[in-house]
Design a protein that fits this description.
301 residues, 78% helix
Length: 301
C-alpha cells in the first residue's frame, strides 16, 4: 500500500481472519502427511520448500529491485527469520506424533505471552489494557483446553514430549514474528515471503540431510498433501499474518493465532474422531472472547 491508497482500517482484521481459517488446516494436513509415511522433518521441509518455489516467480516479478538491493543487515535478518521459522515447524509438526491436535495447537499458540514480554523488554512497547486482558482471557482458554485434554487421556503416545515440542514451537514462532517485523519494514511482501520461506526451507533440507531423512521416494498422495500444506496454511495463512505485520502489532497477530485450536480441534473431530470435552468447549469460547478483546484494544490503539 502507498500513501495515496491507504489500507482500510478493517482490512487487516479481515485478512487475519482468513489467514486463521487457512492455518487451522495445518495440523490436520500434517497428520495426513504423516499417515502417508512422510517423516515430520520432511513434512516441514516440503511445506516451506514448495511454498518458496510457488512464490519465486511472483517475488522476482514484483520485487526484483528490493531483492537486488538487500544489504548485509537484511540478509542477516532473513537468515534469523528463516532459522526460527524452520525450528517452529520442525518442533510443532513433530509434536503431532506424540500428543493430540487440541493440546499441540493450544500450546503452540501461547505466543502472546512471549511476544508481549519480548516486545516490552526489547522495544519498550506496552500493549493496551484491553490487549492485555485479551491475552489473559485467551491464554486461560488455552490452559483449559490443555488441562481438559490431559484429563480425558487424549494425550497421545508421549504427551510430555509432544507438549514440550509444541511449547518450543511457540517460542520459535514468537522469535520469528519479532525478527520478521524488522525485516518486513520497508520490504514488499512477496520479497519478504520468498526470503523467509526459502531460507527456512534450506535450513530444513540441511537438517533432513544431516539426519538421514529422505524427502523423495514417497507415493503421490503424500506429495499432494504436502502441496496442500504449502498452498493453504502456508501461502494463504502465514502470508496473511506476514502482510498484517505492517498494519498491526506482532502481539495482536500472536493473539489471533490463539484461535487456531478452535478450528483445528473441530477439524480433528471431523477427520480423526478426536472428540473434545465440555471444558475444552469452554476453553474455545474463552479463546474467541480474548481475541475479540485484543482486537478492540488494537483498533483503539
Amino acid at each position: 500500500m502507498n500513501s495515496t491508497s491507504p489500507s482500510p482500517r478493517w482490512l487487516p482484521f479481515v485478512v487475519l481472519g482468513v489467514g486463521l481459517l487457512a492455518v487451522s488446516f495445518g495440523a490436520i494436513l500434517a497428520r495426513f502427511a504423516q499417515g502417508h509415511g512422510l517423516p515430520s522433518l520432511a513434512v516441514a521441509a516440503l511445506r516451506l520448500g514448495l511454498a518458496a518455489l510457488i512464490v519465486t516467480p511472483i517475488a522476482w516479478w514484483r520485487s526484483r529491485q528490493a531483492l537486488r538491493a538487500l544489504d548485509r543487515r537484511r540478509m542477516a535478518l532473513a537468515a534469523g527469520a528463516g532459522f526460527f521459522l524452520a525450528l517452529h515447524f520442525a518442533t510443532w509438526i513433530s509434536s503431532l506424533e506424540y500428543t493430540s491436535v487440541a493440546s499441540s495447537t493450544a500450546l503452540v499458540t501461547t505466543n502472546p505471552v512471549w511476544i508481549s514480554l519480548a516486545s516490552l523488554a526489547l522495544f519498550g512497547e506496552r500493549p493496551s489494557r484491553l490487549t492485555v486482558a485479551g491475552i489473559a482471557v485467551s491464554l486461560s482458554g488455552s490452559a483449559l483446553i490443555f488441562w481438559s485434554d490431559g484429563r480425558a487421556g487424549a494425550g497421545g503416545s508421549n504427551a510430555l514430549l509432544g507438549n514440550a515440542l509444541a511449547l518450543a514451537g511457540s517460542w520459535c514462532f514468537s522469535a520469528y514474528l519479532l525478527v520478521g517485523r524488522r525485516l518486513r519494514a520497508g520490504m514488499p511482501l512477496p520479497a519478504y515471503v520468498w526470503l523467509a520461506y526459502g531460507v527456512a526451507a534450506l535450513f530444513l533440507l540441511l537438517a533432513c540431510r544431516a539426519g538421514g531423512v529422505a524427502v523423495t521416494g514417497y507415493e503421490a498422495p503424500a506429495y499432494l498433501v504436502a502441496l496442500a500444506l504449502a498452498l493453504a496454511p502456508q501461502l494463504l495463512g502465514h502470508t496473511a499474518y506476514n502482510w498484517s505485520l505492517r498494519y498491526v502489532s506482532p502481539t495482536f497477530v500472536a493473539v489471533v493465532t490463539l484461535g487456531e485450536p478452535v478450528g483445528s480441534a473441530f477439524l480433528a473431530w471431523l477427520f480423526f474422531g478426536e472428540s473434545f470435552a465440555p471444558l475444552q468447549a469452554a476453553g474455545f469460547v474463552l479463546l474467541l472472547a480474548g481475541i475479540y478483546l485484543a482486537a478492540v484494544g488494537e483498533m483503539r490503539r
